[in-house]
């Protein structure tokens, strides 16, 4: 039987953002009021921070799918480009702003996570130019050769995603970001994912993977991890609490949502502001071992008020996710079942049967809501 524990303390009910994509209206106004068109054509910039191997590419695929189109590298360009362009979004990888290539880092004895290995000035100039609607010639860091390749031309998209190790480390770059996301993968899970990928796909040994993680850890703790306190949304991935000593098979995933965000309303379970534990397994949700436990409640995160939505465990039948979705509010979905539809569309992606896929989808919908609010607000104020 489904079980529910709820502590009351409800806040205001759900609000919905109006959908106002860049439209023909803005184009018509172009000839009469250049100010309006400039604002409506502005690029919205999203920052996604995480360590290497923490699911950025998987998350990007889920997010860009919400906006439509198939992400592709720039046509006819460098086959080792890190850029992905689709209908509305362009994703650039901040590795392209390494100031030291692989040899340079080895000579200077710094890791790729050290700020000394990044060109933050160029990162700022190019992200600022794209945000103003201007094209840039961006360098390419070639992960195959470890060298910096000749630049590629990047046109300003509607939504620019800057993903990598340090999107909000530099205060000037951070100011350019309209929405900040951090993927916080605990050491145990990061290790399990790296082992699975680097042993199977890249032929690395268990020992070399361990050494690489250990050698990166001090700089990760010093320069990458602290960015999470500034994110608007954080997806935290932890070992399950449902199975003792599990080695990364089941996940406990927490969606940490800042209160008072200018651009989104936190998603809640059943009753906004309450503290709720819910075991949805039963007649409407098939759960084999170890089942699913959900949690929702207020919390503080680095001294800031947040709402946390949590899912521990995994579901068996993706289509039954509609049962969980129907108990969530403020999801930023445009129609009933949109989350389940997205999850089914991306069912082959890693994390599709647990909280990583579910929360990545919700964050993708929040980015869409933020984009639409920014476009709408700027049309009004221009
Ligand atoms: N939600 C998930 N559940 C299980 N495994 C996952 C999940 N997300 C990612 N992985 C695993 O972790 C590996 C790294 O994922 P991904 O390539 O998306 O990360 P990344 O941050 O883009 O990595 P890099 O920066 O090194 O290219 C993948 O091979 C995938 O198998
Ligand atoms: O942390 C990383 C982000 O992807 C990479 O290790 C960094 O970009 C250096 O790349 P490589 O190891 O291919 O020289």
Could you give the topology of this structure?
Layout: E1 3-7, H1 24-29, H2 34-40, E2 44-49, H3 56-67, E3 84-85, E4 89-93, H4 102-108, H5 120-131, E5 136-142, E6 147-154, E7 159-164, H6 171-176, E8 179-185, H7 187-200, H8 206-224, E9 233-239, E10 251-258, E11 268-269, E12 275-279, E13 292-301, E14 304-313, H9 321-325, E15 328-329, H10 338-345, H11 355-381
Parallel strand pairs: 2-7, 2-8, 4-7, 8-9
Antiparallel strand pairs: 1-12, 3-4, 5-6, 9-10, 10-14, 11-15, 12-13, 13-14
Helix pairs in contact: 2-11, 3-11, 7-8
Bound molecules: adenosine-5'-triphosphate (ATP) and ribulose-5-phosphate (5RP).
Adenosine-5'-triphosphate is lined by residues 50, 52-58, 193, 196-197, 350-351, 356.
Descriptive overview:
With 382 residues, this protein is α/β, with parallel strands linked by helices. It has two domains: 1-31 and 232-382, no CATH class; 41-182, P-loop containing nucleotide triphosphate hydrolases (Rossmann fold). It is built from eleven helices and 15 strands. An eleven-stranded mixed sheet has the order 1-12-13-14-10-9-8-2-7-4-3. The protein is globular, with a radius of gyration of 21 Å. The N and C termini lie far apart (54 Å). The model is unreliable at 6-40 (pLDDT under 50). Bound molecules: adenosine-5'-triphosphate (ATP) and ribulose-5-phosphate. Ribulose-5-phosphate binds next to loops.
């Amino acid at each position: 039987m489904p079980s529910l524990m709820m502590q009351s303390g409800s806040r205001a009910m759900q609000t919905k953002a109006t959908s106002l994509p860049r439209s023909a209206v803005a184009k018509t106004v172009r000839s009469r009021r250049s100010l309006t068109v400039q604002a409506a054509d502005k690029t919205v910039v999203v920052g996604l921070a995480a360590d290497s191997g923490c699911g950025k590419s998987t998350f990007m695929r889920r997010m860009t799918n919400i906006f439509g189109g198939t992400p592709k590298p720039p046509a006819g360009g460098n086959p080792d480009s890190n850029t992905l362009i689709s209908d509305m979004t362009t994703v650039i990888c901040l590795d392209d702003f390494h100031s030291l290539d692989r040899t340079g880092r080895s000579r200077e004895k710094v890791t790729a996570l050290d700020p000394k290995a990044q060109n933050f000035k160029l990162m700022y100039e190019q992200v600022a130019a794209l945000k103003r609607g201007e094209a840039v010639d961006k360098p390419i860091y070639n992960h195959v050769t470890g060298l910096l390749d000749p630049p590629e031309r990047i046109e300003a998209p509607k939504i620019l995603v800057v993903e990598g190790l340090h999107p909000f480390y530099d205060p000037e770059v951070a100011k350019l970001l309209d929405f900040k996301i951090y993927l916080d993968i605990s050491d145990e899970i990061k290790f399990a994912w790296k082992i699975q990928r680097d042993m199977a796909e890249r032929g690395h040994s268990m020992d070399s993977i361990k050494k690489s993680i250990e050698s990166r850890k001090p700089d990760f703790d010093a320069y990458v991890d602290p960015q999470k306190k500034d994110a608007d949304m954080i997806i935290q991935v932890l070992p399950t609490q449902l199975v003792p000593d599990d080695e990364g098979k089941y996940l406990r995933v927490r969606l940490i949502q800042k209160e008072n965000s200018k651009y989104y309303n936190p998603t809640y379970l059943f009753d906004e502001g309450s503290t709720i534990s819910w075991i949805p397994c039963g007649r409407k949700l098939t759960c084999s071992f170890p089942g699913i436990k959900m949690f929702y409640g207020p919390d503080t995160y680095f001294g800031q008020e947040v709402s946390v939505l949590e899912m521990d465990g995994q579901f068996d039948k993706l289509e039954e996710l509609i049962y969980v979705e129907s108990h969530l509010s403020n999801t930023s979905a445009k129609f009933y079942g949109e989350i389940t539809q997205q999850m089914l569309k991306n069912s082959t992606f890693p994390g599709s049967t647990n909280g990583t896929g579910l929360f990545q989808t919700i964050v993708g919908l929040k980015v869409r809501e933020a984009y639409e609010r920014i476009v709408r607000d700027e049309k009004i104020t221009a």
